[in-house]
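User: Show me a protein chain along with its predicted structure.
Assistant: Here is one chain, sequence first, then structure tokens.
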Amino acid sequence: MTTTTESVLSDDLLKRCMERAPGYDRDNKFFEEDFKELKEAGYMLAAVPKELGGLGLNLAQICQEQRRLGYHAAATALAVYMHFYWTGVAADV
């Protein structure tokens, strides 16, 4: 099942993440700027239910957004995935 929704990740944000990705990889550096922008965009709340202050995206919607992020900045998407894994578990509990 595919679900379309308005993206939390703007094209401009994704472009900036893509531009920074080679430097993060080369320098083995934490994705600090990407993390800050993703947090400001509300993306880190994607898996949190709306009634708890999150965006309430379902698994298909999160996967769709993660594919977009991964295309532009794979390491950032991997790190964010781990965050979604645990926020999703916490939300289910």
